[in-house]
Amino acid sequence: MTEGKNVPNSSADVPFRSKELRKQSLIQHTGLVGVIDEGTKTIGFSIYTTPDFKEIAAHRVELGVISSQDGWYEQDPLEMMASINKCAEEAIKQLPELGFSSSDIITVGITNQRETTIVWDAVTGKPLYNAIVWKDIRTSSTVEQIVAKVQDPNYFKRRTGLPISTYFSALKIRWLKDNVPEVRQACREKRCKAGTVDSWIIWNLTNGALHITDVTNASRTLLMNLETQNWDPVLLKTFAIREEMLPSIHSCSEVFGKITSERSALRGITLSGILGNQQASLLGQMCVKPGQTKNTYRSGCFLLCNTGDKPVFSSHGLLTTVAYKLGPQAPTIYALEGSVSVAGHALSWLQQKVRLLPDSRDAEKYAEAVPTAGDVYFVPAFTGLYAPYWRQNARGIIIGLTQFTRKNHIVRAALESICFQTRDILECMHQECGYDINKLHADGKLTTNNLLMQLQADTAGLPLFRSQLMDSTAFGAAMCAAQAEGIDLCKFEPEKRYYENVHYDTFLPTTTEQEREERYGKWKRAVERSLGWVIKQKKTRTHTEENYRMLSSLPASIFLISTFAMLVHSLSATVKS
């Protein structure tokens, strides 16, 4: 296995700048940048120095999820704000030991879980319902109603880059209006506000003075027109949502205003950056040129490919989204996005459900105990397959077992399944974006697994660059906030080869093209065998004939019963007489 190293002159052409060049590319200011990182599972606040963007202080807490029904996922908006305030307070407490104080924090950026939707009362500032999380599927019937109306789930794709899906905010807002009396009443009285998590955070931090979002979060609502970057009147009418409910759309990097909440340790500090979390990761990975691609490896995977200043619309189920817009006058940069629904979750399944692993973190050790997966392939289609297959009737399979197969082979096959699914999406991105994808940037918790990283390089046939930050989301948001006009803590110059702030561990392919294609071909065959597993039950001929016999016997049954009743009545009448 190739050990991860920095390789400045590799075929991936990743620019690494020297300290001298770094100094030339940055304005010589001193100051700190804070980042609110609101994820699905954790909330954190990080503090970075500039211009070197070193994280010097941080505090993180877990965020609970409420699931009252199967497929329903909610979070408490008040818990979110309490956690954000707590994290900021605890991180700032660490500064004096480092020779800094809260007054050294010049600006704050925000990065957040996308699509998750909150509605609240504009008068009281209180939430009208829990936040509906991005993966919640309660809006399935609403989706069916809308699709039945427009006759095509991709009807709005040219406007929004997105299909009509439970995933996006428009469906969640519509469901809240239709099913929650408090929301319906607030809408009638024109005091209902709605937005993604960033909007809720900013509303609270500014005591209701700002109701805003950025283009990356707005592009995930199914309500923003990708071309105009405004709320689309046709979409608003389709989903019966008033524009007055929604936040105004801004760029990702500009001076939005100051934090005024007395509950926040950040009071008096400027807000100047907003990015959805996967877009922040793309920026933090320095994927700023068309064709540059990153993958975040967690329980699932999120792949984004920079497509430049022109949106690319996919015919393979990939999403078209805004990558970033670094200023009101800056060009809008777009991306293609694809996701792997089961990545690290497959390892958790091996640990918790089938007990092949004592701990999912031991996957590398178990998989390295065998040189190959022994021709075993694991397709983890627990709830179907997504891009590029989009087959909800697929189910998971483990295929290629022999009498010599050990649990180590299955664990290794699970790691390889993550790599194969990533390659599936990379193949689509390469076909549709028109750019050569000659490297893959990686971050996320699973990237600590060196074997997985090497397998990914071998499977895709691409150099893989693992960010030493592991999770570059907060860094991307910090850079976005720091470079805003009027803040100017750094100068973002992607056109120069020495702009890189991040160092990488590099994994180079060690397989031949023939080996890669042979293994990928077998993966495709395994996928084919997983398709069509869920079949809607149909009445068999035998079952239908049985039903017919039963139904045809009903008149005779009724005749016999009625005859018996008449006989009893006749006998009773005779006795009485």
TrEMBL record:
Pfam families with a match to the protein in the record: FGGY_C (PF02782), FGGY_N (PF00370)
Enzyme Commission number(s) from the entry: 2.7.1.30
Segments forming a coiled coil: none
GO term, biological process aspect, one: glycerol-3-phosphate biosynthetic process
Gene Ontology cellular-component terms listed: mitochondrion
InterPro entries on file: ATPase_NBD (IPR043129), Carb_kinase_FGGY (IPR000577), Carb_kinase_FGGY_CS (IPR018483), FGGY_C (IPR018485), FGGY_N (IPR018484), GK1-3_metazoan-type (IPR042018), Glycerol_kin (IPR005999)
PROSITE patterns according to UniProt: FGGY_KINASES_1, FGGY_KINASES_2
UniProt keyword Cytoplasm present: no
Superkingdom to which the source organism belongs: Eukaryota
Family membership: Belongs to the FGGY kinase family.
Protein name stated in the entry: glycerol kinase
Organism, as annotated: Drosophila mojavensis
Lineage: Eukaryota, Metazoa, Ecdysozoa, Arthropoda, Hexapoda
